[in-house]
Every structure is written in C-alpha cells, then in structure tokens.
Amino acid sequence: MINLLPKVEEIMENNKPSVYQQTLDNLNKLIINKTWKPGQRLPTMKQLAKKLDVSVTIIREVLRNSWCSEYRTWKRNLFKK
C-alpha cells in the first residue's frame, strides 16, 4: 500500500503555522485591537472569511473550537452585572 500522506518530519520541517492557527491568531488580534466595540455583533462567518482570506470552514472550526470557548468566557465576564 502506498502512503500518500506526508511524513511528520516533512510537515515539521516547514515550520509554518497552519491556516487554522494563523486564522485564530488573526481573530485574536482583531479582538485585542478592539476592531469591534463591546456589545457589537461580530461579522458573519462569510464576512470574516472574506476579511481574513480563508474559507468559511476554517472560520467555523476556529469559532467552534478554541476561540469560541474563550470568547464565551470573555463575553460572560464583560456583561456580568
């Protein structure tokens, strides 16, 4: 059987962050730089994808995974009375 997947060494050799990681970093920068005001709605996934030049799938995964849980915590703390 032929293995079509690249070897781990080949991937690590590149040493370039994945598109997912770059998108996560870019979204975090946008939040830190206060691109959106507190309480303001975030752009749609399609708009974010266009702004960051990635697919909607990447945006969805970033929002669903690590960034989303951090954002919920931040939002919960921001709007506590």
What does the model show?
With 81 residues, the chain is an all-alpha fold. The chain has one domain (18-78): Winged helix-like DNA-binding domain superfamily/Winged helix DNA-binding domain (Arc Repressor Mutant, subunit A, Orthogonal Bundle). It contains five helices and no strands. Helix 2 (19-32) crosses helix 4 (56-64) and helix 3 (45-52) crosses helix 4. The N and C termini lie far apart (61 Å).
Which helices and strands occur, and which strands form pairs?
Layout: H1 8-14, H2 19-32, H3 45-52, H4 56-64, H5 66-78
Helix pairs in contact: 2-4, 3-4
Question: What is the gist of this entry?
Answer:
By secondary structure, the chain is mostly helical. The chain has 5 helices and no strands.
Q: What descriptors fit this protein?
A:
mainly alpha; 0% strand; 81 residues; Arc Repressor Mutant, subunit A
